[in-house]
Design goal:
The structure is a single chain. By secondary structure, the protein is an all-beta fold. It is about 0% helix and about 50% strand. Strands 2, 4, 5, 6, 9, 10 and 11 form a 7-stranded mixed beta sheet that branches. The radius of gyration is 13 Å and the shape is globular.
Length: about 130
């Protein structure tokens, strides 16, 4: 089992940047494929990006491709999300999630059901 705690959210102007972190504790972090999701008020939780256990493979939602970058430091048990060129539509609660196993190739990593553990979320607000 793994515990996840997000941090780094806040209020930023459009065009600005934020870096989210997700600190993991419990079982060995490198055994988990990881993902970031977000949920805006009144909307379903949506996929943002996922990363393989070794950090070699990544999948991005089209809406963030070229602006967001996921990375992980397995030695520090931490997942990151660098968000640049932020837009008001990026406003949401951002969640990190862990899947006990590999990222796979079937596309399941885009779905919430793929992940076994979730953090509590961190609010990101982008003002226009």
């Amino acid at each position: 089992q793994v515990q996840l705690v997000e941090s780094g959210g806040g209020l930023v102007q459009a065009g600005g940047s934020l870096r989210l972190s997700c600190a993991a504790s419990g079982r060995t972090f490198s055994t988990y494929a990881m993902g970031w999701f977000r949920q805006a008020p009144g909307k379903e939780r949506e996929f943002v990006v996922a990363i393989s256990r070794a950090g070699i493979r990544t999948y991005y939602a089209d809406s963030v491709k070229g602006r967001f970058t996921i990375s992980r430091d397995n030695a520090k048990n931490t997942l990151y999300l660098q968000m640049n060129s932020l837009k008001p539509e990026d406003t949401a609660v951002y969640y990190c999630a862990a899947h006990d196993g590999g990222l796979g190739y079937s596309g399941s990593a885009y779905t919430t059901g793929f992940y076994d553990y979730w953090g509590q979320g961190t609010q990101v607000t982008v003002s226009s």
